[in-house]
Amino acid sequence: MSIAPHRALKALTGLLCAVLLLAGCTMTVQGKGEYAEGGVKKNAPPSELNIQNSDGSETDQQVANALDDAFTFWKKQMPKVFGKEFQEPAGGIYSYTPEQSEPIPCFEGDNSSAAQNAFYCSAEDIIAFDRNFMAELSDTYGPFLVALVMSHEVGHLVQSQTSGLDDKAIALETQADCYAGAFSQSAQKGTKYYDLTSEDLDAVLGGYLLFRDQPGESADDPSSHGSGFDRVAAFQEGFYEGAGYCKDAFGPDREYTEFAYNENEQKTGGNLSYEEIVGYADTEMNAFGDAVASDEGKSWEEVPAEPADGAVTCDGKKQDDQVYYCKAESTVLYDDSGAPATASEKYGDFAVMELFALAYSDAILNVTGSKTKGADRLTAQLCLSGVYAGDAFEKTVEGTPTAGGLKISPGDLDEAIALLIGIGEDDQVINTYKVDAFDRINAFREGFNSGREDGLTASAC
């Protein structure tokens, strides 16, 4: 964030490692991790789809299987959505390594420029991929991330056959993300090669943040692909709404959350220090609580935020949560040396504010008379924290500070997404009640959309 007009919440360096570190996750970052199965059906016959320049590797076979499923998906969807038949790329599928001596399709000059890439090239109507990069993604995040990357490129193939968008890069890229989400929903139901689980989706979300633009880039940049929030949002829209929705949702009126740094944010990376953001949390969150309570016709009494002396203890009982609303003491307590400080270091300042927003959302639900418990209550908290973020973002767009004098900075929403992936039931940040990361982010996103449209109200949650 930033202090309006002079402050900031931002910068996600080493984001994915940070996701794993906060969660204390056992998924390895190098070598084969716990998601090695990745939703792949065992004993499915290998696809006979031809891969040009293949070395016969398992990776090339994974890509063939993924594209086989994606092509099957679009052979069914294209007539329904666009009223025409889907055509596989006439130029075929091409596997390469940057070290090879042969030219790579659609690349001129040094092959190294094609490293760590996969692409659809309309000039030659071909899908090509760096097989070493695909192997790395598969080993780290599970083989379904390979399928997601390939289904995104097939999304570009669909665009070339339907001419449905102008050439604004971020619209093309996020629509392809949406198409990848629609394909992934079919993979969850079960395809020839995939039977996706919630764990696979969570692993994919972590990998997806690899492909975001760096904070501070503009949605109007001719090479923009979208922020992490924009890309995950598009993917989830496709997953929940289907390919027909994706067709019409990325026109000129679509709004994106990616915007450039101002001069001060350029210097700070859009981040306040941990001490600064914690100092603002009390004022910011009480203003948030008061606004929502007033909208519900309720009275809000100030809830202070206080650091705990060691482990968080409420009414004499030790709590696992490291940021916790203690109803008995009407206080939000936090472990000053635990998760909030770690979130600040690993993700950025808005991740810290999100932790406080979750705790204060519990207090808001208490004031408004909500009787929900467990997973349902956490989902409502996630939604309310999204309402806060959405309202703060809309105020930033309008040039107005929040009640606490803050504004959203580029990358803040990516920090929230990273945090919501990183927190988990076993790491004692908060109790997730087994609500998986995919659903945590979806609840936050729904609240965000409500906050942008309707301001600080609990009506959507």
Query: Could you describe the largest sheet, including whether it forms a barrel?
Result: 4 strands, mixed
As a percent range, the share of strand residues is 5-15%
Number of strands: 11
What is the terminal-to-terminal distance? Answer: 24 Å
- Give me the secondary-structure category: alpha/beta
Shape: elongated
Summarize the amount of helix as a percent range: 40-55%
Mean pLDDT: 87
SSE topology string: EHEHEEEHHHHHHHHEEEEEHHHEHH
- The domain count comes to 2
Strand arrangement, major sheet: 2-3-5-4
Model regions low in confidence, pLDDT < 50 over at least 5 residues: 4-36
Blueprint of the fold:
Elements: E1 2-3, H1 15-23, E2 51-52, H2 58-82, E3 92-96, E4 118-121, E5 126-130, H3 131-141, H4 144-162, H5 169-189, H6 198-208, H7 228-241, H8 243-248, H9 263-268, H10 274-295, E6 305-308, E7 313-314, E8 317-318, E9 323-326, E10 331-335, H11 339-346, H12 349-367, H13 374-398, E11 406-407, H14 412-422, H15 437-454
Helix pairs in contact: 1-11, 1-14, 2-3, 2-4, 4-5, 5-7, 10-12, 11-12, 12-13, 12-14, 13-15, 14-15
Write structural notes for this entry.
The two termini are 24 Å apart. The relative contact order is 0.14. The chain is 49% helix and 8% strand. Mean pLDDT is 87; it is low at 4-36. The longest helix has 25 residues, at 58-82. It contains 15 helices and eleven strands. By secondary structure, the protein is of the alpha/beta class. The strands form four sheets. The chain has a four-stranded mixed beta sheet. It has a three-stranded mixed beta sheet with strand order 6-10-9. Strands 1-11 form a two-stranded antiparallel ribbon. The protein folds into two domains: 2-11 and 269-454, no CATH class; 39-196 and 217-248. This is Metalloprotease. Keywords: Membrane, Signal, Transmembrane, Transmembrane helix.
